[in-house]
Amino acid sequence: MIRSIKRFLTTLLLVAGCTLLLFCASSSRVRNFSWFRYIYSQHSSVDLPVATSLEQCAAAPFVMPTSGWIGIVYGDSILGTQNHSGLDIFGLEGNGVTPVYAAYDGYLTRLPEWTSAVIIRHPQDPLEPDRQIWSFYTHMADEAGHSYIINQIPPGTFELPVKQGTLLGYQGDYNGQSWRSIDTHLHFSLVLDDGYGKFLNETDIANTIDPSPYLGMRLNTHCADRPPVCRPDYTCSPLDLGS
Question: Which residue from 35, 159, 185 is spatially nearest to 97, judged by alpha carbons?
């Protein structure tokens, strides 16, 4: 009699456990997958190449994310409107040649639909530690949409830890669905957080930050050196800004 009761209780526990597992798998599949993807990306050890001795101005927290001619600076006029939200850095060797690197430590995301772009979350702004910011890198593909982002960073990568100098990909001339063709370059910008852990729309200059103090150069259209050079007085004066 006692053995029968034990068998019954054991069977009951097994059935209950299996039912619970099936319920979780069916009703929370998307949530559980998202949770797994988050945990995986947080703790996976992806072997990413990291460069050293990249160009960096004295006392500036960021390294230059790529090499070449800084042809368009922050706030420059594009199509008649003073709205350029970052830097355009033109490599001279053509597509897929000039490397692009992480400017600062952080957590990288490449959304599933992104062909040529990645964004890196920096939990603590090195110049304003109370806020989170993001660095954005794009045009890393050719005109036909062949991506030059390295294979270790496929579409759908979320929160991948990267170090300053991590290789991200190579400059290209991809411009999405725009009717404007472009030359090979990297567009680099610093983007504000929305206060809830997400990046704002980078195409609106109001959502971005002047990169001058982060790179130690005058990169604001109101007082930019052309070409930019490292200098301790990298901010525009009130006279430059017209006030």
Answer: 185
